[in-house]
Each structure stands twice: as C-alpha cells, then as structure tokens.
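Severity: low
Component: inverse-folding endpoint
Summary: output formatting inconsistent between runs
Steps to reproduce: submit the following structure tokens with default settings.
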C-alpha cells in the first residue's frame, strides 16, 4: 500500500523550491536576537511565538503593498556580513530539514547596504552563508543543493547594476536574476536595459508578474522582457474562460504560456495573503494544474506566511485531493525549470526525486 499522505510523510518527500525570499524566511528567534545585538527596538513583539503571530496577522491584509511593509523589520537586522551569513545558513538548514533537495533563494543586494556594505560584499556574504548552511545540513543528514538569485527592486534604478553582479558571480553560485516589488505603476519594461544585457550574456531571469497586477504585467514580462519564468503568474487565469458544460477556452496569452511551458512560481498561502487568491481551495493552481500548465509550488516568504514546503503541499493535497503522483509532478516541474545546467537537473530528477517518490508510493 502507498504511504498515506500526511504532513509527516510529505515532510519526507523530496522537494524543489524556486521562489523563496531570504528576508522573508528568518527564524523569529534569530530576528529577536539580531535586533537585540544592534539595538533595534522597533520589533512589535519580544518572544518568538508572539513575533511569528504578528507577522502572520499583518501579512493577511489582502494587499501586496501592506504585505511588503513587514520586511522593514527583517531587513533592519540584515545589514552586516555576519548577520547575512547567519540568516542564509539557517535558511538553507531549515529548507533541508523540510525535505528540500534543491532551492533557489532570492534577495535584493541593494537592500542590505545601509551600513556601508558594498553590493559585491553582500553577495559574497550570502554565498558564504549558503556554503555554511549546506555543510551544516549535510552534517545533520540532509542533502540539499542551494543557489541564489539576485533581485532588483522595480521601483529603484539599480537593475542594470544588479544584473552585472549576476554575471560576475554566476560561476560562484548565483543562478539568475529576479525583479520584485509592487507591480502596479512599476512595469518591468522600465528595466529593459538590464534584461537585454542578461540575454546578451545568456543568463537566466525570472520576473514577479501577475500577482498584484493583471495580464498586462505577464505579457510585458514575457514579450517585452523575455522572462524565463513568472514569479507567481496567478492572474493568467484571467485569460481562461470556463464555458457551461465544462469546456475551457484559453486566450492567446494563456495558450502561449502553456504551449511554451513557461514555469509559474506559485505560492498558494502567500497569494491568499496578498489577495491574489481568495483561499487555497479556490486558488487558480487547481485549474492550471488540471490544464497542465508548468505549475510549481513555492513558499515565497516562510516567516510572513507561517509556511513551509511541507505545509504548502499538505494544504494542496487536502484542498484538491492530490496524491504522490501529483506532488511528484509539481516537484519535477520545478526541477525542470531550475536555473541549473541540464545534466544537473536531470541527475536530481532521476537519482533523487523519482526514487524518493517511488519509495513513498510503495509504502
């Protein structure tokens, strides 16, 4: 008999995470400790449990802009080399303990320079944290491969500079580029020079689109900017029509996204918090998965959403009746879409992911 799907058994399944923000995944206890060390007195709670509860409650505002405000506190304690190494190492260890075998962790270097750290030193600190966390995870019996994505903020004007950092460090653990921040009023086309540079350098990049804004942001990310993946992309469902009798009609953009196998980096709990979906049960991921879009499951911000890859997959299995085959499909989708060389992706699929799910199916 196959192993029953529970949170405990899903925790043992191999997982792939493409969309996880470093400054959105701090341990509450670490946040309190780092704040005490630097004299930061603005935290809204002084115990890990109360602080975690505050972040979760604040994130359930239904507004992407309000959701982004919670990062003021996490960024305040991530301004030194030591703090960046610690936070990154703990991130990698936490993901590995959750069964994540490959992760792309993203962060915006420009947000960690308030105490004078140069951008390249910020990147080096995070890479050192990845190395430390990977070693600690291995010592604890967990296998993980982690890379990082460098994020530029769409309301700022440093995207070309961040893109150049991606190329400078791409052989040292930087897998690609991302652009994030409030979508409304800040289209990705404002950063075309960065995207053109990355394409000339044969680099990978993803763009946050179709979360806080609709189809135009998805269209611009793909057709103007050339994104390899879409961060969230939830609003692609606005281009899908459900007719009486069950017939489904895809608009031109939705058909393009499906036909081209554009990966959708979906984060169900986060999408509910920001108002991009009304509930897990009503999340577009159910429809999109049934239509065989290249859907992936992600955490986005584990602190704000109070989630993990295990909790996201558990919630989806409960809402949509998914089994091990479905969870493997999401995981393989993500691994196929990773910013890793093809042979490395294939090895993880064939040597780690498929055998891991086969064991769970056999019971």
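Observed output (run 2 of 3):
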């Amino acid at each position: 008999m196959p192993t029953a799907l529970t949170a405990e058994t899903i925790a043992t399944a191999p997982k792939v995470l493409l969309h996880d923000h470093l400054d959105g995944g701090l341990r509450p206890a670490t946040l309190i400790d780092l704040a005490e060390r630097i004299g930061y007195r603005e935290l809204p709670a002084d115990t890990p449990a109360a602080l975690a509860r505050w972040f979760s409650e604040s994130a359930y505002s239904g507004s992407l802009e309000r959701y982004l405000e919670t990062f003021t506190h996490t960024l305040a304690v991530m301004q030194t080399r030591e703090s960046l190494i610690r936070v990154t190492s703990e991130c990698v260890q936490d993901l590995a303990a959750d069964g994540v075998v490959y992760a792309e962790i993203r962060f915006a270097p420009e947000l960690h320079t308030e105490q004078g750290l140069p951008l390249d030193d910020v990147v080096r600190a995070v890479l050192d944290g990845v190395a430390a966390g990977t070693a600690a995870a291995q010592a604890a019996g967990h296998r993980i491969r982690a890379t990082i994505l460098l994020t530029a903020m769409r309301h700022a004007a440093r995207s070309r500079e961040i893109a150049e950092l991606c190329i400078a460090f791409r052989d040292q653990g930087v897998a690609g580029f991302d652009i994030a921040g409030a979508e409304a009023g800040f289209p990705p086309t404002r950063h075309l020079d960065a995207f053109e540079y990355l394409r000339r350098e044969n680099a990978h990049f993803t763009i946050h689109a179709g979360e806080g804004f609709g189809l135009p942001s998805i269209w611009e990310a793909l057709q103007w900017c050339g994104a390899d993946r879409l961060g969230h992309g939830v609003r692609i469902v606005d281009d899908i029509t459900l007719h009486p009798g069950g017939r489904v009609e895809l608009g031109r953009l939705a058909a393009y996204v499906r036909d081209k196998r554009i990966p959708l980096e979906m984060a169900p709990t986060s999408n509910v918090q920001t108002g991009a979906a009304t509930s897990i049960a009503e999340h577009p991921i159910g429809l999109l998965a049934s239509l065989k879009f290249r859907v992936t499951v992600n955490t986005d911000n584990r602190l704000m959403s109070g989630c993990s890859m295990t909790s996201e997959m558990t919630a989806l299995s409960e809402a949509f009746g998914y089994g091990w085959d479905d969870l493997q499909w999401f995981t393989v989708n993500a691994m196929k879409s990773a910013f890793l060389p093809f042979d490395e992706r294939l090895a993880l699929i064939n040597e780690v992911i498929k055998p891991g799910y086969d064991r769970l199916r056999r019971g």
